Amino acid sequence: MALTDAKLRKLANKKDDPITLSHRDGLRVKRNKNGSVLWQYRCRYLCKPVIMSLGYYPEVSLKDAQDLIPHLKHWLSIGEDPRKAYKAYSKGAADDPTASELAQKWLNNTLHTYKPKTQEVYSHHMGKWVLPYLKDKPACEMTAADWHKYFDYIRENGTAKTASVILVRVKTVLHWAAMRGELPNNNPIFNLQTKHVGESATQGQRWLPFNELALLWRKIEQARAAPANKACLQLVFLTGARQSEIRELKWEHIDEENKIWTVPPENSKTNKPIRRPITKKMQEILDSLALVYGKKGYICPGSSPRKAITTHAVNRFCARIWGYLHEEHKTAKFVPHDARRSISTLLSELDIPPYVTEKMLGHARRGVMAVYNKHDYIKAQAEGYELYWKKINEAIANLKS
């Protein structure tokens, strides 16, 4: 049965099992797993079966696809390869875009949909590694050898991990372009994996036991640093919150009456608010910060009261503290993010349920529970945090001077 616009609209953007539907005159559509609907043409060239892509619906409409049939039949009748002839015909008014041009178009069209920090990262990656280097050859003509040569350059002038990150970025751009019908979806880059061009980011394994947390806490207290620096790192290790959630914490996010602090959606990795209890130790730290900086704006301000302390400042301070502990106690390397692994591991050993520790970490639930259970377990979180500080405090008391 011939296809109609109504049938095509129902097919488009539905992520389901792949399906192929025939139209007429060798024309058909294939819906992929990602919901894209690709026009295809079946024929025989040099006595061999050929299935060629004509573009994606709705960029290539039903009428556009049908109008191509006479051209395709003509090319076959005169012995031309319909794939090459269609490619030349498609160029028509404009040349095929380069990956650099597609990346710039992707930035212009989609960058605003991401959070400010993500926008900054993506702009940096594109500006440094993509836009300057992928502008000499159309993306559709890039071969596997071309891509490997490009990623070899990144690996040599950056790092193997950088090459893997840029692979993900470029594939995102080209998949976006393919979905819009601006690029065939058979580009060789789509078959590349991070292991082919560089190294995947290593998954962290480090977590600090209570005796190391005690050493860390004591060294922070002894350090000569701004109160905001010391308190920020303490709150990171005390709560297991993401560093950005602590750095961007404002007094307006604190409900002092109910002893709850809320991470607003714009500061949350999950784009949803995260509610945590304010424990006695956290309140003690907040009171000390209020005495120094006042109860307005950022709780841990940076060089200016109107700006949050920077990631660089927190990481640098943490590295300095680790340097002291490594020199004195041979403590293994740790970073602020290891606080999250520490609190989850240690509280699990103390029989705090996973659904509580996941809430403490600000992780989003999955599956049916995410749909129906909106409870924050504030009371259970508070009990977990109090137990955690109690164990750290006991370890501090047991330290040898």
UniProtKB/TrEMBL annotation:
Boundaries of each Tyr recombinase domain copy? 203-386
Instruction: Tell me the keywords, alphabetical order.
Output: DNA integration, DNA recombination, DNA-binding
Core-binding (CB) domain residues are 97-178
Entry-linked Pfam families: Arm-DNA-bind_3, Phage_int_M, Phage_integrase
Q: Note whether Cell wall biogenesis/degradation occurs among the keywords.
A: no
UniProt record similarity statement: Belongs to the 'phage' integrase family.
Descriptive protein name: Integrase
- Source organism (scientific name): Pseudoalteromonas aurantia
